[in-house]
Every structure is written in C-alpha cells, then in structure tokens.
Specification:
With 323 residues, the protein is α/β, with parallel strands linked by helices. It has 2 domains: 5-140 and 177-239, Spore Coat Polysaccharide Biosynthesis Protein SpsA, Chain A (Alpha-Beta Complex); 252-321, no CATH class. It has 12 helices and 11 strands. It has helices at 15-31, 48-58, 75-89, 109-119, 147-154, 157-160, 162-165, 196-202, 214-224, 252-271, 273-293, 299-316, and strands at 5-11, 35-42, 65-70, 95-100, 103-105, 123-131, 141-142, 182-183, 186-187, 191-195, 228-239. Strands 1, 2, 3, 4, 5, 6, 8, 10 and 11 form a 9-stranded mixed sheet that branches. Strands 7-9 form a two-stranded antiparallel sheet. Strand 2, helix 2 (48-58) and strand 3 (65-70) form a beta-alpha-beta unit. The longest helix has 21 residues, at 273-293. The two termini are 40 Å apart.
C-alpha cells in the first residue's frame, strides 16, 4: 500500500516531548494503514537524535517511523521541508500532516481529519481542535493580518474602541472553537493537514521565514490557489505549546526578533512591498510615540527601547531578506 498519510515532526531540543508525541501516534498509526512518520532532528546540537533513535528502536517503531538528523538548524519551515523532501523521495503521500513535537494526538484524530478532507475536495489545508493541558481550547483560527488590520491593531484600536474597530482584531474571538466547524483565513502551524497533490505542485513552507509567519503565508497561498483552509473541532490534539521557543531553548530576545521579522515578511510576501514598508513606518512611529510618553517609567521604557532597537535592526538588515 502507498503512503496515505505522511506525518512530519520537527524536533528542536525537545526529545522527550517528541518521544511522547510518537507514543501517542503509535496506536493511531496501527489503526490507519498507509501512515508513516518522519521525524526531523533539526540541528539541536544536543543528544536529541540519540534519544529519539533509542526510543524508535526500543519501542519497535521503525516500521513506520523514520528519523532524519540534520547538522544545521533549518528553522520551522526548513525543518518541515526536509521532512517533506524525504516523503517525496519515497513516492509522496495523499496527505501530509505537519505536527508539532509538543502535541499528543487523541484517539480517532487521524482517521477523522483525513476522512473529512477526502469528503470535501475543496479543502486544501485543515486543522482540528487544539487543547491546552487544562482542557481549554486554543485559538488556532485567525483572520489574515492584512495591512489595514495591522495598522489599526498597531494603535490598539480594536481593543480600545471595539465597537468601531473590533472587526480588525485578527484573533477573531466571536465564535466558539469547541463546537463550530468553518472555513477560516489562517490556521496555526501546530497541526496542519495538507493535501499531498497541493504540496507536490505548490511546494512546502516558505523558508524565507525562519520562525513565525510561515503558517500565515502557506494559508494565504492555499486560498490564492483556489483551495480553502478549514477548521473542524470534532478531532482533538493536546498542544503543550511554545516548547521549542521557551527561554531554555531560545532566548527571549531572539524570539522577539523572529516575531518582528515574521510580521514584515508576511506583509512582503502576501501583500507586497508597499504593505511591508507601510507597516514598518507605522510601527516605528508608534513605538517612538509610546516611548516618548513612557519616559522615566522604568520597565515600560526599557521594553519600548528594546522594541525600537529591534525595529532598527529589521531596517538595517532588510537587504538580506529581499529574495
């Protein structure tokens, strides 16, 4: 039997979580013939590869799980693409699931999500309900950060004047993620089930994004190419959240730099050069004004000063990201 579902998991210094994720997948793989898993050890520089290999061998998962070890940290997009390349080398798959290492897949999830995509050929990318450890639902469905929404949001107008500007809140908390299935603009990257034929034609995640923003870009591309992004709450995954970017694995300053850069790259590659530069100027003016009004206020002034430095850094290094 060919590969019906290929699951790609990128590990970056989270070997214990990755093994727990594989353990949750084991009974699901057994119940869904034609399912394979590729784990990409993404240049962690620690003993992640050895620990994951020991778990795969010790639990006899090698029949359905392949480990790839890279010397370089390719980022979230590049790590997933290295896994996708392996899937394509082995003949491709009908569906490809990009799954975070810090997730626990609940019973029936794989079967239900794949069957939903098989029943609706218009869905190009799908996500399910993601829960926190306490059982509350995470918001994995958002509106696209269009230039107008970003400009309005930069000045906090959706929260200061919700009646007038609530529509510009990308979080879109006006509906229940526990019960409502619907098409959405943008789905978070912790669980992304993608149609294999779409990936074969339109490639994977955009590697110009290292961390943050690549999930927005691929959803934007799915919609532009005539498919839909869909959310369905009848299947569930527990998502522990933020593990690869917690302070023990990624410094807070580095995380903030990636966040700012992802913000502008989304504008650049989804909406064009003008949108990118517009938002840069808006953010720069906004942060300068806020810094002026918060002089002498200790931590707040420090936070804004750091933000201004990051904005300047993005400007100075713009030519490195023009490709």
């Amino acid at each position: 039997m060919g590969t019906r579902l290929a699951i790609i998991i990128v590990n970056y210094r989270t070997p214990g979580l990755t093994v727990d994720c594989l353990r949750s997948l084991a009974p699901e793989v057994a119940a869904n013939p034609g399912t394979r898993v590729v784990v990409v050890e993404n240049g962690s520089g620690d003993d992640s590869g050895a620990k994951i290999k020991d778990a795969i061998d010790g639990n006899r998962w090698s029949a359905w799980c392949t480990l790839i070890v890279t010397e370089k940290n390719w980022g979230f997009a590049g790590g997933n693409n290295r896994g996708q390349e392996r899937v394509m080398q082995e003949g491709g798959a009908d569906y490809v699931l990009l799954l975070n290492s810090d997730t626990l897949v609940q019973p029936g999830c794989l079967k239900q999500t794949v069957e939903l995509m098989e029943a609706d050929r218009g869905i190009g990318l799908l996500s399910c309900r993601l829960l926190n450890k306490d059982g509350s639902a995470q918001n994995v469905c958002r509106k696209f950060p269009s230039p107008l929404r970003c400009v309005i949001g930069a000045f906090s107008l959706p929260w200061k004047m919700p009646r007038l500007f609530g529509w510009a809140d990308c979080e879109d908390l006006t509906w229940d993620r526990n019960t409502v299935a619907r098409d959405v603009d943008w789905l978070g990257g912790a669980f992304m089930l993608i149609r294999g034929e779409w990936l074969a034609k339109h490639k994977g995640l955009d590697e110009r994004f290292f961390f943050y923003g690549e999930d927005i870009e691929i959803c934007h591309r799915v919609w532009r190419t005539g498919y839909r992004c869909h959310y369905d709450p009848t299947s569930t995954v527990v998502h522990l959240g933020g593990s690869s970017s917690d302070p023990t694995r990624m410094a807070a300053g580095t995380r903030s730099v990636h966040s700012w850069r992802g913000r502008y790259l989304v504008q650049r590659f989804c909406y064009g050069r003008t949108a990118d530069w517009l938002l840069r100027w808006v953010d720069l003016i906004n942060v300068r004004l806020r810094l002026m009004f918060n002089r002498g206020k200790g931590p707040k002034e420090q936070e804004l000063s750091e933000a201004l430095g990051m904005l300047r850094d993005n400007w100075s290094k713009w030519n490195e990201r023009r490709a």
